[in-house]
Design goal:
alpha/beta, globular, 17 helices, TIM Barrel, 46% helix
Length: 484
């Protein structure tokens, strides 16, 4: 059984000509072949050298010939399944299917004062349960939902996050890496009978540190899918132009696609466009900027059509607003719609508020309506004899005819119309009578309802005990290193 997601049944949005796509492609190949990429990992350097790359071991610089890049891009699968703890949550990535994921934040935020603070373990677990309950969350992100949780040592943040997600959700998750924690993350996934996405992230410009490459080796050799990401800020760590930024972004991603296919041909990968323009007025990344949407549309067009590798639109779920407000809503909605229209495989949306700083489950509930609306749009209109309803139109005729009492209406209205869960759609007089509630108020009520009624698929007692044993193994490992 595969989680449905949404199907892109309309023509994908494309803004680049074939000539422009090819120019960007050739530019990325030229960067990799003539400038190269810094890989701070000796085993990877030897692997590249053994496969015809020009490697400067002293500078740890790899120059990858264009033919090898293109061969490896062709070897990466265009579609594949990722198994969840509950088979109903298995994902099929690639093709025309869109899934949504959440976007984490470092801290929770007070909905009255909008000041942030570390979340408690209970708040972290509750936020995961809410994501597990939401219809349009298909995958959980790393550090989810919070980077910083009270009473958890920083070095244990990722393993504790992985364990909390396994315990409180049966959906597929992405995990991070740091200080060898992926060893323990993989073990926990194996105990729970689920696959997880590993991660390998660039350090722009054109650099991968040792821990990122070691993570790639570990996940690919374990037979798990790898999420390859960049974090370019155009104007700071990549050229300020959209064309220049996407050319270097693609080069950074291509290098690890090559690595994965050299390690294991056919290894499952997804590439993530996690980029932001530099706000030249403040020096911060411009979260929610429309240029993010432009970048994502270009990126999705190139990787979807030319390389046929699944894509993650990773910059979407963030705003420059510090509150759950109009700005937060429109910044998230417009870029979500653009990413979906251009054929993203995954969009990171739910829960993020300001940058990577704040997250709240109330925002994830609001975002679930955004995901549902966007998903409904890309699925388009079904055109057949029944939906055209010619015979019915003839039967009803002009006024005083109407359609409200027709079987056709009863059958089709919920299929044709998306019904938001927390939007205010009351007539004005009824809105007044019911306390003038807005979407934020309804989302708070929905959060309380989910926490009172939703029960994630539980682990067995033995699985839960084994996961706790792995966490204790990780704690001992880091105590020996003096990190706890």
């Amino acid at each position: 059984m595969i989680m449905k997601g949404f199907s892109l049944n309309i023509k994908p949005l494309e803004i680049l000509s074939e000539e422009q796509v090819e120019k960007i492609h050739q530019g990325s190949l030229e960067i990799l072949e003539e400038t190269g990429i810094k890989i701070e990992h000796d085993r990877a350097l030897r692997l590249f050298a053994d496969n015809g790359c020009n490697v400067n071991f002293k500078e740890k610089r790899v120059k990858i010939p264009g033919y090898l890049v293109e061969e490896c891009l062709d070897k990466a699968p265009s579609s594949y399944i990722v198994k969840a703890r509950d088979p109903r949550n298995d994902l099929r990535l690639g093709g025309n299917t869109l899934y949504f994921a959440n976007f984490p934040g470092m801290r929770t935020v007070d909905l009255n004062t909008w000041e942030h603070r570390p979340a408690t373990k209970e708040e972290n677990a509750d936020a995961i349960k809410i994501l597990d309950a939401l219809d349009n969350v298909h995958k959980l992100l790393c550090y989810t939902p919070y980077f910083e949780v009270k009473d958890i040592p920083p070095v244990m943040a990722i393993p504790e996050s992985v364990a909390a997600k396994i315990r409180n959700s049966a959906k597929v998750q992405l995990t991070g890496y740091a200080h060898d924690c992926e060893i323990f993350n993989i073990k926990m996934a194996q105990v729970a009978g689920t696959e997880i996405f590993g991660q390998c992230a660039a350090s722009p410009p054109l650099t991968y540190y040792k821990d990122a490459i070691e993570s790639a080796f570990r996940f690919v050799e374990a037979g798990l899918p790898l999420h390859i990401a960049t974090g370019d800020v155009f104007g700071a760590t990549s050229p300020v132009t959209l064309a220049g930024s996407i050319t270097v972004t693609n080069a950074e991603l291509m290098a690890i696609v090559v690595l994965t296919q050299l390690v294991k041909p056919g290894a499952r990968v997804i590439v993530a466009d996690f980029v932001f323009p530099q706000n030249m007025q403040t020096g911060d990344p411009a979260f929610g900027a429309i240029e993010i949407g432009l970048h994502q549309v270009m990126f999705n067009q190139i990787w979807r059509r030319k390389y046929k590798i699944p894509t993650n639109s990773a910059s979407i779920g963030l705003s420059s607003s510090k509150k759950i407000d109009f700005q937060c809503g429109y910044e998230k909605m417009v870029n979500t719609l653009l990413a979906a229209l251009s054929g993203a495989s995954i969009i990171q949306l739910h829960g993020g508020i300001y940058g990577e700083i704040t997250y709240h489950p109330v925002q994830s509930i609001l975002d679930d309506d955004i995901a549902g609306m966007v998903g409904r749009f890309i699925e388009g209109a079904e055109i057949n004899d029944e939906t055209l309803a010619i015979d019915l139109i003839k039967e009803v005729g002009p006024i005083p005819g109407y359609y409200l009492n027709k079987e056709h209406t009863r059958k089709w209205w919920k299929k044709e119309q998306f019904l938001p869960k927390v939007a205010d759609r009351l007539p004005y007089p009824e809105w007044l009578k019911k306390g003038k509630k807005d979407a934020l108020a309804y989302a708070k009520e929905k959060m309380r309802e989910i926490l009172a009624t939703h029960n994630p698929v539980p682990l067995s007692e033995d699985q839960d005990r084994q996961i706790e044993n792995i966490l204790e193994e990780a704690r001992r490992y880091y105590r020996k290193k003096g990190m706890i």
